[in-house]
Fold:
Amino acid sequence: MSSDTLDPFCGSIVAVSAEALESDTANHNLRWGDYFIKFGDPSLLYEAKTQAYLYELAIRDPDAPIIPRVITYFIHDYVAYLVSEFIDAPTIGTWLECTDPSQHALGYCAVANALDWLRRVPAPPDTLIGQLGGGPARHKLFKFTEAPLKFASIGAVERYVNKACEWIPSKFRPPPVSFSMEKSVFIQADPTVGNFLVVRGRIVLIDFEDVSLLPESFFTYMMNTTNGFVEKVAKYFPGERSQNLPTMQAVKCVLQLHGGPTLGLNEHGYPVHK
Structure:
């Protein structure tokens, strides 16, 4: 939506966001009545499209977690806006603090079910890797949590990870990864307590900035983190291992330290010819 076609509702969104920014320049999120507003870089639209797609799937599935409905998203004066329904509920972190410890297992299990639903839903035919609408993949394996390339395929991700593996001294180098037999699945790469709400025993997924499509091994990697909350959730994925996991864990160190995050590759995972 261009600046010339802003309707009154979107005009109000722009106005209240500008007012909020004057009082707190670091905060680009706010509640406005029944709505939750996020605004910022145009890449926010990738998040909006991902959330909108998953919402449509969730409302048709009684076993799905709750996903806030996307009201609208648009760009005005180079700033992107995402407006969702506001769901007034405690985070899973608050719920755990206020609930008897004997009930905590129910909360961890519910989060596990929500993450499992997310990875089981079908990917749209026009996106195999990354956020919907053409955004890069998000995962803690990558430097700054964002893939440095908009990978064109699962094979491209495999070639990228294996290229990074070549930087490990041969004496300590793990075997190359293979994602060729894996599906591309939706993964919440930042499963912290603040990204899950609890409504009458059901989990609400919020903040889709770090939700994107990646090979299944990336889910296994996420479930094998040292984050205390995730460790408790991971107990509900028994046997969730991947032969690629040791290599991915080793490669993360390379990617965090390497000065050129693309490793000289293009979006297909092949060397860039100068």
Q: What stands out?
A: Helices lie at 8-23, 44-58, 92-98, 104-120, 154-165, 217-223, 228-234, 245-257. The chain is about 35% helix and 15% strand.
